[in-house]
Write a structure and sequence with these properties.
By secondary structure, the protein is α+β, with helices and mostly antiparallel strands. The chain has a domain at 57-189: 2-Layer Sandwich (HIT family, subunit A). Helix content is 30%, strand content 16%. The chain contains 5 helices and 7 strands. The protein has a 5-stranded antiparallel sheet with strand order 1-2-3-5-4. Strands 6-7 form a two-stranded antiparallel sheet. A hairpin with a 2-residue loop joins β1 (65-69) and β2 (72-76). α4 crosses α5 (175-189). The longest helix has 22 residues, at 102-123. The N and C termini lie far apart (42 Å).
Length: 191
Amino acid sequence: MKESQKYQKKTVFPKLKPSKIKTEHMQKDYYTSDTQKNARTGDMYEQVKSNLRKCPFCDLKDKYIIYERNETVLTVNLFPYIDSHLLIIPRKHHLKFADINSKEWNSVKYLISLGIEILNKGMNIKNTNILYREGIKAGVSLEHLHFHIIPVTPEFIQYKKDHFLWTFQKINYSPIEIAKKLKKIATKYAK
């Protein structure tokens, strides 16, 4: 076993029989605006994750995508920590950073820059954090490699002498609302 594989958490998406799908899975739509806006502060995110039947990034809907370059997308976070929380996701299902090729890495860098610019121009967001996590103890919730662009506000992040603390915020705008607005802005600033 490779060193990098030792720390990989394996997400299994079980296949359900059609009768079970109807009763267990289809009764609850985890992608409603209310669920997306309240999943983090309402402690629903763990329930959403435990009911996944396929990778949501492999099955990402176009309505959430802001911009795409070379099979890598800039999208809204479907269950944001704070309003205007964005993600950069390679379409290919990579597990770790070492798996991406130079073309994908160049697209990631470009989309991080574009994401920061459109947050600044479209949402008047001046401060952001870029987050990438790898490994089970790093807090990875989905194993499809992705990068976060997180707006920073005093309410969201508090810096202390020896640590900092994130606090999930009340979400005022659904991911689809943010995607529609930023998609228009991205076409203006994309090169």
